[in-house]
Amino acid sequence: MRWDIFCQIVDNYGDAGVCWRLARSLSSIHGQTVRIFCDNLPTLNLLASGVHVDIKDKIQLLPWESSFENHRHQAQAPDVVIEAFGCQLPERYLAGLLVAPKKPIIINLEYLSAEPWIVDFHGKSSPQSHGIPKYFFFPGFQDQAGGILIDPVPPSSPPSISSIPASLEKVWSQLRPHAKRISIFCYPGAPLRKWLEDLASLDQDFDILLTHGHAELLGINTGQAIQLPEHIQLHPLPFVSQDEYDWLLSQCDFNIVRGEDSFVRAQLAGKPFIWHIYPQEDRAHEVKLAAFLDLYLEGANQDLRLSTIAAMTWAMPSQWFGAIDAWSAHGEAWRAHLLKKQGGGGLAARLLAFVG
Length: 356
What we know:
Layout lengths: L1 E6 L5 H17 L3 E6 L2 H8 L4 H4 L2 E5 L16 E5 L6 H9 L5 E5 L8 H4 L12 E4 L31 H4 L7 E5 L7 H8 L6 E5 L3 H4 L14 E5 L5 H10 L2 E5 L2 H8 L4 E4 L7 H13 L5 H11 L11 H18 L4 H10 L1
Parallel strand pairs: 1-2, 1-4, 2-3, 4-5, 5-6, 7-8, 7-10, 8-9, 10-11
């Protein structure tokens, strides 16, 4: 089938990351024909960089405006149209759908959530005045929800160090063999300076891997750099592609992530992590975080529950880092649980089954 995915980037990398990963899953794993229309093509191209040419060539990455002339030829008519995260289709594109000989299915792909109510709304129709069928599709962790994006499935054990991506070789050569590695990818509002200063109070060596843009948040190269003792070393990273970032997560002992795509990949890396969920004015993000933690920590003992909740709500590391070994074991078990629950291909496979 032909799939058109529309992506308006709100959270910079996260929205584009989900759309790109979904497109590559549909095309490379499931043999579908996919186009992405994006209002910020440079960001999308950055995330897709470094991917093998055989994968990238199967997907058309197009500017938003190019969708306006989409239906002059019947061969270009899509079977499925995805409004990623509820973005509105361009009026001229929608007009083309109305006159197309074959009407597609429109999918309103929502944000990932662990909230129980999504099960009741997942897959429900959304009647439209124009008559083209439209449905809500809710990604989620429950069996009755839309699944999560698991492709490409990470290896069951950490990759060989010989597989270091070229973009990370220089930084990797500077890391200390016995230091714990922490990657950081968070929003500017995080108490990052205070968090690192508290981390320095622990009697351990840490190599801190700062994803692109985070060195500036800490004043590096601006004359206001954070001052840390020698056992805490900061390593600014270049911008890396999606696959390279996946590799980075798998090689760290602890990860701080944000947005939807890195949130899922941190779980599939099987490591402890902090999800810096996108803050919302009505504090709805707190409800979403609590719903996820209810699932994530189901069956965990009280000490691990308290430590994990403290970490996820930005308590200082000295208050919970003593539980890191138990949390690491839990992370590996959660990864295995996710892959078992998503058997058959996760979100992309469930989408195919739904529209088929």
